[in-house]
Write a structure and sequence with these properties.
Elements: H1 3-25, E1 32-36, E2 50-53, E3 56-57, H2 59-63, H3 73-79, E4 82-83, E5 89-96, E6 101-103, E7 107-110, E8 116-125, E9 130-138, E10 147-159, H4 173-176, E11 188-197, E12 206-211, E13 222-224, E14 237-238, E15 244-251, E16 257-260, E17 264-267, E18 273-278, E19 285-288, E20 293-301, E21 306-315, E22 318-328, H5 344-350, H6 367-370, E23 371-374, E24 384-385, E25 388-389, E26 412-413, E27 419-426, E28 434-442, E29 448-453, E30 468-471, E31 477-485, E32 489-499, E33 504-513, H7 528-566
Parallel strand pairs: 4-11, 14-22, 26-33
Antiparallel strand pairs: 1-2, 1-5, 2-3, 5-9, 6-10, 7-10, 8-9, 10-11, 12-13, 12-15, 15-20, 16-19, 17-21, 18-20, 21-22, 23-27, 24-25, 27-31, 28-30, 28-32, 29-31, 32-33
Helix pairs in contact: 1-7
C-alpha cells in the first residue's frame, strides 16, 4: 500500500471518529413538558394532567401500550387513561425552556376503524416557547358504546440552536424507543396512547333556553326548554305576533365541547307557515363551555291557522335532542302598522319648512325598499338596496351547505381579513325603519366562526347595530362582523335582518381561511447544529480528496523520476 492510500485511509478513519464523537456529544432534548390543556383537565382521571416531564412519560401514559386489551374494561382502565363519552375533544399543551424547538404536527391513529380521530388544530409558538394541539373524535351512531385505542405520535422534536443544554433530556427507554434512526441523531420522537369510549343513549348537560318575544307575557327574558329524545313535555306556544324565535344552546359540566350536526326541521302543516333556520347552529357546529350558540327560526305565515313545528339536534352517537312547539299565525297583514312616518310633530319641529304636516301628503315606502347597505360610508349602497342584494353579495340563491364554490363574482374576503364593516342607513329618515333580529349564519362552521362585534351598550362602538330590536332612522349605522378561522378552506357567510314588517333582508359573502401555522417534519438539514456538522464534514471530505489527489500526483512524479534514472 502506497503512502497516499495510507494517508487517505487515515483521513477517512479520522472523519468517522469525529462523527461518532459529535454524535455522542450531541445534547439530548431537555426542558420539554407535555400536559393536558385547560379544557381537558380533570376529565381523563386522576394523575392524567402531566404526560411528559423531562422526557419521561408519566403514570398511565407510560403503561398504556399499543397491544392493550380493549375487550376487558378492568384491564384497560388499570393501564390506560380513558376519555369517556362526554369528551368530544381533547386538548394538549406543551412548553419548553431555554431553547427554540421544532415540534412536528402529531400523527393520530385509531385502532377501531369505525371511530375516527384527527388533529383539529396545532400551533407551536417559538417566541413564547409553548404550543397546543387538539384531537377531535368522530363517533358515529354505528360506534355507539364501542372503544378504541388512540395512539398519538410526534415524529420529530428538535432544537434550533448550537448551545449546550444544561437540563438534558433524560428519557431513557421512553425517549430512545422512538428515536428516528433514519435521520440524524438529533431528532427525537415520542408517543403515547389512551382509550376513547363512545357514548350512547341520552346525553345530559345540554341546556336550551328560548328568548321571549316582546309580545309575550311578563317575566324572565329567557324560558327553559327541556330537551329529550321525544321532545319536551311542557307545551310551548309561539304567538301570532311573533315573527322569530331564538333558542340559545349551551353545555354544562362535565361537557366542555360538543359538536352538533345540522338540525332537522319538521313543519307539520307546510302550507301554513314557511320556516327558515338561521344563526350559529343553523348548519351545525361546535358549542364550547364558555359560550352559547344560537339557533334562530324565522316565520313567514301563509295561512291564518296554527301548526306544530319540531326541531331536532343530532348529537351522534347520542340520541338526538328535540324541541316541539306550536306556531300560531294570524292575519297576513298583521304587521302593516309597522310601516309609516315618524312622529310628525317632532319631525316638523326639527324641519318645519321642508316636512309636510300630514302623513297623507307623503307616500309610504316599504321598509325593505328604503333599507340601504354599503361597504363604505360614502352612501354608496353597493351591498343591498331596493329590496335586494347586489350581485356580488347575492348569496341567498346558493346552497349554504354545498361544498361547491359560488360564482366567481361573489365577494370574497381574503385570509388576511379578520373583520369587515358594513354601513346601514334609511333612504327616507322621515319614515320608520326598524328590525327584530340581526343574525349571521356560517355555511361551514368547521372552517370559520363569525359573529357581530361592538354591540355592547355603552361601549366605544355605540353606533353599531345590535342583534335585536334595532332602529335605523336619521343617523348612518355600522355593522361589524368578526371572523375567526379554524382550519383551511372557504365558507359562505350569510347576514340576515328581519324587519318589523316581517320582511327579510339578506346578503352574503365568502371567507377564505388558511390552516394554522404548522411545522412539518424536516429533512436532514433541520437545525443550526445539523448544518454546522454538515459543513465541517464537507470541508474534511474536500481536504481528504485534495490530499489524496496531491499524494497521487507526487507518487506519479516519483515513479517517473525513478523510471528515468533506471535508463
Amino acid at each position: 500500500m502506497g503512502l497516499s492510500r495510507i494517508v487517505f485511509v487515515c483521513i477517512v478513519l479520522l472523519c468517522f471518529h469525529c462523527s461518532v464523537i459529535c454524535s455522542e456529544n450531541t445534547p439530548q432534548l431537555g426542558g420539554f413538558a407535555l400536559t393536558l390543556g385547560a379544557e381537558s383537565l380533570g376529565l381523563l382521571g386522576e394523575g392524567s394532567s402531566d404526560l411528559i416531564l423531562n422526557g419521561n412519560l408519566m403514570n398511565k401514559w407510560k403503561s398504556c401500550l399499543s397491544d392493550t386489551d380493549l375487550t376487558s374494561i378492568e384491564k384497560y382502565q388499570s393501564s390506560c387513561y380513558v376519555a369517556d363519552g362526554s369528551l368530544f375533544r381533547t386538548v394538549f399543551s406543551f412548553y419548553y425552556e431555554d431553547m427554540p424547538l421544532f415540534v412536528a404536527e402529531p400523527v393520530v391513529k385509531s385502532s377501531n376503524a369505525k371511530i375516527n380521530a384527527e388533529v383539529e388544530f396545532f400551533d407551536n409558538d417559538q417566541v413564547e416557547q409553548s404550543g397546543e394541539f387538539s384531537i377531535i373524535f368522530d363517533c358515529p351512531y354505528a360506534a355507539a358504546g364501542q372503544s378504541t385505542l388512540i395512539t398519538v405520535t410526534v415524529e420529530d422534536v428538535d432544537w434550533g440552536n448550537e448551545e449546550m443544554i444544561e437540563e438534558q433530556w433524560n428519557g431513557g427507554n421512553d425517549a430512545e424507543e422512538f428515536v428516528d434512526s433514519s435521520q440524524d441523531s438529533m431528532a427525537i420522537a415520542f408517543s403515547f396512547s389512551f382509550v376513547k369510549v363512545c357514548g350512547k343513549g341520552d346525553l345530559d348537560h345540554v341546556v336550551m333556553k328560548m328568548l321571549k318575544s316582546s309580545d309575550d307575557t311578563e317575566g324572565s327574558d329567557e324560558v327553559d326548554v327541556p330537551l329529550s329524545a321525544q321532545g319536551q313535555q311542557k307545551e310551548i306556544k309561539v304567538l301570532q305576533t311573533t315573527k322569530v324565535s331564538k333558542f340559545l344552546v349551551s353545555i354544562e359540566e362535565p361537557l366542555r365541547y360538543l359538536f352538533v350536526e345540522p338540525p332537522k326541521l319538521k313543519v307539520f302543516e307546510n302550507k301554513a307557515v314557511d320556516v327558515s333556520l338561521r344563526g350559529a347552529l343553523a348548519h351545525g357546529g361546535a358549542i364550547e363551555n364558555w359560550d352559547r350558540a344560537d339557533l334562530v327560526l324565522i316565520y313567514h305565515c301563509l295561512e291564518q291557522k296554527s301548526t306544530k313545528i319540531e326541531v331536532e339536534l343530532p348529537i351522534p352517537p347520542f340520541n338526538s335532542k328535540k324541541v316541539v312547539f306550536t306556531k300560531e299565525c294570524g292575519a297576513l297583514d298583521a304587521f302593516a302598522h309597522e310601516e309609516g312616518f315618524l312622529d310628525l310633530e317632532e319631525e316638523s319641529k326639527a324641519n318645519e319648512q321642508q316636512q309636510p304636516n300630514t302623513e297623507q301628503d307623503r307616500t309610504i315606502i316599504p321598509m325593505i325598499d328604503r333599507l340601504r347597505i354599503g361597504s363604505s360610508d360614502f352612501y354608496d349602497a353597493d351591498v343591498f338596496s331596493d329590496s335586494k342584494a347586489a350581485t356580488k353579495y347575492d348569496l341567498v340563491k346558493y346552497d349554504m351547505l354545498s361544498s361547491s364554490s359560488p360564482a366567481l363574482d361573489i365577494m370574497k374576503y381574503s385570509v388576511l381579513q379578520s373583520e369587515v364593516d358594513f354601513y346601514v342607513w334609511n333612504s327616507d329618515p322621515a319614515q320608520k325603519l326598524s328590525y327584530d333580529v340581526l343574525e349571521v349564519t356560517v355555511g361551514s362552521p368547521s372552517v370559520v366562526r363569525a359573529y357581530f362585534a361592538g354591540v355592547t351598550p355603552g361601549n366605544v362602538y355605540q353606533n353599531y347595530l345590535g342583534e335585536q330590536n334595532g332602529v335605523i332612522n336619521e343617523q348612518m349605522k355600522r355593522m361589524k362582523i368578526h371572523m375567526v378561522c379554524r382550519t383551511q378552506g372557504t365558507s359562505k357567510i350569510l347576514v340576515t335582518m328581519l324587519l318589523k314588517t316581517g320582511r327579510t333582508a339578506e346578503f352574503g359573502f365568502l371567507k377564505e381561511c388558511n390552516a394554522p401555522k404548522k411545522i412539518k417534519k424536516r429533512a436532514f438539514l433541520r437545525t443550526a447544529g445539523s448544518l454546522f456538522t454538515v459543513i465541517v464534514m464537507s470541508f474534511i471530505s474536500l481536504a481528504a480528496f485534495l490530499i489524496y489527489k496531491y499524494a497521487k500526483q507526487v507518487r506519479h512524479a516519483v515513479h517517473e523520476y525513478n523510471r528515468v534514472r533506471a535508463r
